[in-house]
Design a protein that fits this description.
Helix content is about 30%, strand content about 25%. By secondary structure, the protein is of the alpha/beta class.
Length: about 375
Amino acid sequence: MRRIELKVDLGIIEENARKISDHIASGVKILSVVKADAYGHGSVQVARRLEEKNLTDCFAVATVDEGIRLREAGIKSEILVLGYFSSDETEKAIENELSFTVYSEESLFFLNESAREKKKTANAHLKIETGMNRIGIKPGEELDSLLCSWKEIQNVKMKGIFSHFSSADSDPVYTESQFSVFQKACEKAREHGFSPVRHIAASSAMFDEKYQLDMVRAGIALYGSGGMKDELKLVPAQTLISHPVRIMTVPKGTKIGYSMNFTSERETVVMTVPCGYGDGYPRSLSNRASVLVNGKRAPVIGNVCMDMLMADITDCGNVDQDTQVVLLGSQGNECITPDELADLANTIPYEIMLGFSSRVTRTWTH
């Protein structure tokens, strides 16, 4: 029996991808974001499944290393590196036919020189700064200068142009202002003779047809989280399971765990589970979250430790050391989602999904 296991259901991710496709306008491409090991779901496994089922047009990663890993695993689709690339990575990236993000005139010149030396043409997507203030070329003189320079360059093709909404799920006015800036930048690129694929909408905006343009970026929605449209019925694909290593009954008034910040208010059956913040289960869930035992919720009691946590299973029926404990996922009619844990931990579901450490065993089901 494994100490703790993270199971990823690829069938659920495939079904989420189909639901997303059904809600995207005909002819709009889908870019599947598999950065950060597919938000903790396994980038190779997810990319293979989506490519095999023809559920994506291309992929996006954050780093060159992430892109090369996909190529080495046999992924053939376009792979866009969304962020920074360094000089020592460029040669391998070009050899592996990764697409680059150009976000400054300097990055364009550097990429062109590297591709020229390799006697190849590099593909790139131009990143426009529309109000996120992270990376991107600013509209106006900077963009005009870059586009004039790009027209003279021989070894870099502008395959796409994109930007990123900062608050699509919370500020429609600012989102619309960003979109207006982006549209003007796209028109400027067309005036200079370019015809790139336009994309700005990630998961939180991609179901609004106005923002779909030529392509959308499906990220956290693929993995069943992020507060997407209820009618899509997207489902989380991770299940974190463990088992009890100790079960004991303590009298009323017993203090539990570090700092003794939990005191039992009744005779309580306490279960110890070998999972803690060293495995990526946030300490901030202490005395807040629940785990599932026999299809019932068992409150986490006391502080979550580095390697263990305790839960009150008084109302959970018969439990022994072979009983499965679900810390994230479904059991019976109950479900603990990444969004629930994120709310309780005062964070975002992204951090829950990809936060599990390397000592958690990962398995995939189909």
